[in-house]
Amino acid sequence: MQDFSETFTRIGRRLDEAQRYLRIDEQRARQPQLESEMSRPDLWDDADKAREVQTELAAVNDDLSLFDGLGATLEDSEVLFELAKDEDDESHEAEIQAAVAGMESKLDELELRSLFTGEFDERDAVCQIKSGEGGTDAQDWAEMLLRMYSRWADGRGFDFEVMSASEGTEAGLSSVEFMVRGRHAYGLLQGEHGVHRLVRISPFNNEGKRQTAFSAMQVAPFFEAMADEIDIDEKELRIDTYRSSGAGGQHVNVTDSAVRITHLPTGTVTSCQNERSQHQNKDRAMQMLAAKLLDLERKKREDEIAAITGEQKNVGFGSQIRSYVLQPYQMVKDLRTEYETGNVDAVLGGALDDFMEAYLRFARAEGEKDQ
User: Fold this and answer.
1) Would you say 260 and 270 are in contact if contact means Cβ atoms under 8 Å apart?
2) CA 222, 226, 228, 234: dihedral to nearest 10 degrees?
3) Where in the chain is the domain with CATH 3.30.70.1660?
4) I need a labelling partner for 141 at 20 to 30 A (CA). Which of 2, 6, 156, 167 fits?
């Protein structure tokens, strides 16, 4: 019979650490308060506040359920091991090994949550992909990236909704805006912000030459109640209405009431074309604009601090963050974290978690160096 004593001790230490970084005691105290708020009959008179309470309660319940479940599994496994050891019964060894593997996997998941330390990491994300240099290949690449993030979101059980899309001249997409809803959606996607580079044999080149294409991903945290976060002067907006062409295939519902909003001082543009009415499209486009403007202000403050401290921060679309090489070899490599894999098909199919975790660890290490 394998001796699991040290393994159980190690798992116990990791659980103790999880209790601290997840603030389990605080969450236990907060849980009944949130449940009481949820039971108020007038809660949904303010839909934004109700959704906020509902989201927080779901997150608290999720953390407590996972933590308590791990504690119970550890206790049961220790009891089973002691009984099997006393009776010199090896028949339970496989069961204990399976329990240990499950606990370690769930602890890895919990430890990932400890990396979400940003103010907006819990929020949903509003994203935009724009094709860049590379002509038709770049527009095709933009659509490939959209599919990649859609599959990643689906694999995590997140909601994925395309808000508007502009078709490419020959294929693919010129640009597309979408939302990802789920716990830590922004925290996970924030590291995807930047330029993505594709190298492959172009299907649009009759000579079969290798082509490099670029598309840019922009990510911002989303706020349902935008009025509480930022004041937007409507005099600074240009609002255009147009008929949706249904770009993006099955992703977008064709309507006659699409809305595009341009914030004139910054040139920031958002659009929405998949709600049922022009009014709903405008409201959603305004929410997305607020998210982008807030993110712009936050990055501006970071740049100002960096200028004062002498730190050079490379943010926005000016930096290439990741290369996806299909020919002459196959590799996806993040140029910030140095994390790479040769399984390109898996990555394009949505296997992005390892890249996202590597970025979160990289960002935390960089933050610790700056302190």
Assistant:
1) yes
2) 150
3) 125-370
4) 156
Are 273 and 163 spatial neighbours (Cβ–Cβ below 8 Å)? yes
226: nearest Cα among 325, 320, 124, 314: 124
In 3D, which of 362, 1, 8, 352 has the Cα closest to residue 180?
A: 352
- Per-residue pLDDT reduced to its tens digit, 112-136: 888 887 888 988 999 999 999 889 9
Q: How many CA atoms lie within 13 A of 159 on its CB side?
A: 10
Selection from 190, 141, 217, 202 nearest residue 364 by Cα: 190
SS3 content of the chain, % helix, strand, coil (to 5): 55, 20, 25
The alpha carbons of the chain give a radius of gyration, in whole angstroms, of: 24
Its pTM surpasses 0.85? no
> CB of 221 within 8 A of CB of 125?
yes
Only one residue has tokens 């002067």, namely: 233
Task: Identify the CATH class of 5-113.
Answer: mainly alpha
More confident residue, 253 or 103: 103
Amino acid symbol at 316:
G
The CATH number of 125-370 is which of 3.30.70.1660, 3.30.479.10, 3.30.497.10, 2.30.110.20?
3.30.70.1660
Q: How many helices (H) and strands (E) does the chain have?
A: 9, 11
Domain with CATH 1.20.58.410 in the chain: 5-113
The type of residue at 94 is A
